[in-house]
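Researcher: Let's run the pair from yesterday's discussion. Sequence first, then tokens, for each.
Model: Starting with the first of the pair.
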Amino acid sequence: MEQTLGAAIGKTHKMMFKSINRRFKEAGLDLHAEHFIVLIHLWEQDGQNQQWLGEEAGKDKTSVTRAINGLEKRNMVLRVPDKQDKRHNLIYLTQLGKDLKSAIMPIMEGLIQQALSDVDQAELQTCMKVLGKVYANLHKEI
């Protein structure tokens, strides 16, 4: 089982998260990879509900809630009741949350550069194409 696609993806995912967490800590940022996943989607489209964030991030409700709670505790996001649907909150970046982008993106760019240092463009394109197909095949079930 150690040589399966799922195991390879899982190990890579864990290593990526460990690397993100280590780099954030080294930079003096009180953040984790789970927080980054929420932040990046809010930087693209602020003021979204938790369900949308979970779908975009590919995370379950519990993980997204935990990440938002952590970001809210750090004053990086705030919850605002949705005027159209009182059952939901919209998640907005605070100024601190917005400002973090300039500190975090160079860290992430460096990480990606290191991760892909000996991967050529054709290999990367093939990998992304295969993973896209695997995702689409599995998504059909849901």
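Model: Moving on to the second of the pair.
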Amino acid sequence: EQVEKLNTFLGCKNLILFIRPHPVQDMSVFSVESFSNIIIVDEKFLVNNNIQLLELMAVSQALITDYSSLYYDFLLTDRPIALTVDDIDIFKKRWSFWFDDMESNIVGERLNSIEDLYDFLETVVQNKDLLAQKRAEAKQRFHKFSDGKSAQRIYQYLVDNYDL
């Protein structure tokens, strides 16, 4: 089975794959309790481990996502991102999409097959970041500030606008 093969690969590479399903996704058809290197990160997992999703992302080596807003949060880490966008045409028909040309606006390795997934994981293990420069450009486009001074700006805003 593909999942067993993936779990073995992850073990050989000393990687853990955290899978964050959509909150309304039916996970009953996907059981990975018996796999050592694949972990489902649902609300129960987060609560039981007293961790927030963003905390987990902060220590992750890479992100694999679709159209999630997590993409924009993870851009701030300057780490590799892979995209699973094989259903983009269905998504565009069903939901409003804010980009006419997603490929030039959402930067990441495109995963169209299981082989692409293995290739991406291999580049992560080897610390090869093939799209670092393009992601840096996307980060500048989507994040006005990423200088670590957000708390200072909020404080100054409060002082300037409220009787503190």
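Researcher: Give me one sentence on the second I can quote.
Model: The first strand starts at residue 17 and ends at 19.
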